[in-house]
Amino acid sequence: FLREGTAIHDTLHPDRVIIGEFDKRSGDMLEGLFSEFYDHKVPILRMNLASAEMVKYANNCMLATKISFINEIANVCEKIEGVDITSIVKGIALDQRIGPHFLNAGAGWGGSCFPKDVKALIAFSKEFGHEPQILDAVVKVNQGQAEHMVELAKGKLGALRGKNVAVLGLSFKPDTDDMREAPSIKIINRLLAEGAKVSAYDPKAIENAKTILGNKIKYAP
């Protein structure tokens, strides 16, 4: 369970270790290795290979669900005068059953893991005749969230044609240069389609962004 940008920290300070074991001997060896490495202070769970793989898929699907959920709530809050989603998040995050993580409303999730894993579990479920309704909704909410950002701007500014728009942040995740499935791509393409002039800045991702967006926009130093 290594997050992009914090892999070394996550290796040294994991929440848990999941061992998918082919047989008991293999599991015993791995449990001994990790128990010693972490000085017996990290929970270790052992299970068969398929269950361990499902833990990984379910883990990422849960996190993606939290993001789509809070974006859904944010979209409702926009319709109610005086309601601030940041206050709502603070209020529900103090519930220990919910917690504060992955409850930042915004342009939606991207990257390499969430899109791939959520869509993979959906496809896998359908192969076995199960319609994963919650996961379908998670993807549906996320697909429209980036362009919703542009609709918010239009609601404040009116027509965007000819207007100069600054896009702050390009990668899907801060402090990385990863542009895979980045919401900024959808946002910028929609802004350009609306006739806006776009200038963008990101501390790390500009060079990667150029390979996707080319010279359609300006890149600020």
Describe this entry's structure for a reader.
Helix 3 (49-77) crosses helix 5 (113-127) and helix 6 packs across helix 7. The chain is globular. The protein has 221 residues and is mainly alpha-helical. 53% of the residues lie in helices and 10% in strands. Helix 7 (183-193) links the parallel strand 3 and strand 4 (197-201). The strands form 2 sheets. It has a 3-stranded parallel sheet, with helices on one face. A two-stranded parallel sheet has the order 1-2. It contains 8 helices and 5 strands. It has helices at residues 7-12, 24-37, 49-77, 85-93, 113-127, 133-157, 183-193, 206-213; strands at 17-21, 44-48, 164-168, 197-201, 218-219.
The dominant shape is globular
The amount of beta strand, in percent, is 5-15%
Structural class: mainly alpha
Beta-strand segment tally: 5
- Unreliable residue stretches: none
Summarize the main sheet: 3 strands, parallel
| Terminal-residue CA separation | 34 Å
Strand order of the largest sheet: 3-4-5
So how many helices? 8
**Mind telling me the C-alpha Rg?**
21 Å
- In N-to-C order, the SSE pattern is HEHEHHHHEHEHE
Helix content: 40-55%
In round numbers, the mean pLDDT is 96
